[in-house]
Specification:
The chain is α/β, with parallel strands linked by helices and 418 residues long. The chain folds into two domains: 203 residues, 3-Deoxy-D-manno-octulosonic-acid transferase, N-terminal domain (Rossmann fold); 185 residues, Glycogen Phosphorylase B (Rossmann fold, 3-Layer(aba) Sandwich), CATH 3.40.50. It is 49% helix and 16% strand. The strands form two sheets. The chain has a seven-stranded parallel beta sheet with strand order 3-2-1-4-5-6-7, sandwiched between helices. A seven-stranded parallel beta sheet has the order 10-11-9-8-12-13-14. Strand 12, helix 16 and strand 13 form a beta-alpha-beta unit.
């Protein structure tokens, strides 16, 4: 792809999103959030900055934000006089974290057209910019470089099949050269970068380990959830999609009366949740009803009908099933692993997630093809505390060994700042 094609493609996609917004609520939020944004920034942003150095952090969505959060908070702690700008590409990140108090200003990232990028960087004037994991926006990187900003990518991961490493990937390879430093998650990524001449890179690991370790150390007690669990074996279902529930519902029905389950959907859709409840033969309760039901311990299943509390739920689990890998891709399994419980997930789309591959190899997690395989796994966990504990200990030790990425990144930032 050439620069001309890229510029045309970005403009075309941005225009198509306006049409798609007529039919999709999530896209509509993103379009509305960007409308008039640059004008608003021109009017008020620098007045809010009030002469402070700007540190810009960009996350595609909620998962990348959680990955970057340890670095944002460590940076703010070490440079308290700096102004923290946080941008999101997706509504699923912005709408959930738009009131995050760790940043001074939070907004959508305007589309990466040449004019938008030039205008945005001129308004914001970042001293340093951080892009989390997969974000490689050519025009923004180009404008940042021209402005003299320091540019960092962290928790980044590369695979041989990505366009950067193809013969036709020269344009995309060029974007990597704009970074002052790229902190990668694993050795393969570092080797790939060095193989195409990108030397401004180093191995720092995954900042999510720091994040989930901090969550476990400061976990919020939920006495109402403990009352529901009633000291019985409990399965935590994290970030469930419809495809996951098609597997899970027969499994939960099979073990009715033998374990409890707390089910956290990836997205809250009332009609979808109602259909799930109809498929379950045990007694079900919504979290929004939990506080008013003093007999909650008599229920089999608790469905979380809100967003944002999943990471605190794993402390009440004896085992976990993490959703997504029967669909678009596996969700965060590290949050469950840090609490020392065994983990299961679908066997379709997990291979791009290093932690999933690692924990399968170590026997702390298992990928299942269908309900029958999941029944076998859950039965092993229920009938053998030794098997369950061994897998959980593996996961907890894996998290402990991965902590420290944030410290490495901030150490390099200090060097850059002289």
């Amino acid at each position: 792809m050439s620069e001309v094609i890229y510029q045309s493609a970005i403009s075309t996609v941005a225009s198509l999103m306006r049409v798609a917004a007529l039919f999709n609520h999530k896209i509509k939020l993103g379009v509305a959030g960007r409308d008039g944004l640059l004008n608003e920034l021109e009017k008020s942003f620098q007045a809010q900055v009030n002469g402070r150095p700007v540190a810009w952090f960009h996350a595609a969505s909620l998962g990348e934000f959680e990955q970057g959060r340890p670095v944002i908070e460590a940076y703010k702690s070490q440079f308290p006089d700096h102004f923290i700008l946080l941008t999101f590409f997706s509504p699923s990140g912005y709408e959930v974290r738009k009131n995050y108090n760790g940043a001074d200003y939070i907004c959508y990232l305007p589309w990466d057209t040449a004019s938008n990028a030039k205008r945005f960087v001129k308004i914001v004037q970042p001293r340093i910019a951080f892009f989390i994991k997969y974000e490689f926006w050519f025009n923004y990187l180009n404008e940042l470089k021209k402005s003299g900003s320091r540019i960092i990518s962290f928790s980044t991961i590369f695979r041989p099949d990505q366009i950067f490493f193809k013969k036709r990937g020269g344009f995309f390879k060029k974007t990597l050269g704009y970074f002052d430093h790229i902190f990668v998650q694993n050795q393969q990524s570092l080797t790939l970068l060095q193989g195409i001449g990108v030397q401004n890179s180093s191995l720092a690991g995954d900042t999510r380990f720091d994040r989930v370790s901090a969550i476990a150390a400061n976990v919020k007690d939920l006495p109402e959830v403990a009352a529901f669990r009633d000291n019985k074996p409990c399965l935590i279902v994290g970030s469930a999609w419809e495809a996951d529930m098609q597997v899970l519902i027969p499994v939960l029905n099979h073990f009715k009366g033998q374990l409890k389950a707390i089910i956290a959907p990836h997205e809250i859709h009332k009609e979808e949740i109602e259909q799930w409840l109809k498929g379950l033969t045990g007694k079900t309760l919504l979290y929004s009803e939990l506080a008013t039901d003093i007999q909650s311990k008599e229920y089999d299943y608790l469905v979380i009908d809100n967003i944002g509390m999943l990471s605190s739920l794993y402390q009440y689990g004896d085992m976990a099933y993490i959703g997504g890998s029967f669909g678009s891709g596996l969700h965060n399994i590290l949050e469950a692993a840090t609490f020392g419980i065994p983990i299961a997930f679908g066997n379709k789309k997990y291979h791009k997630f290093q932690e999933a591959v690692d924990l399968i190899d170590r026997k702390g997690a298992v990928a299942v093809a269908d309900k029958d395989e999941l029944i076998t796994v859950v039965n092993q966990w229920l009938t053998s505390q030794e098997v369950r504990k061994k897998a959980g200990d593996i996961n907890k030790k894996y998290i402990a060994a991965g902590v420290g990425s944030t410290e490495l990144i901030l150490s390099e930032v200090k060097k850059m700042k002289g």
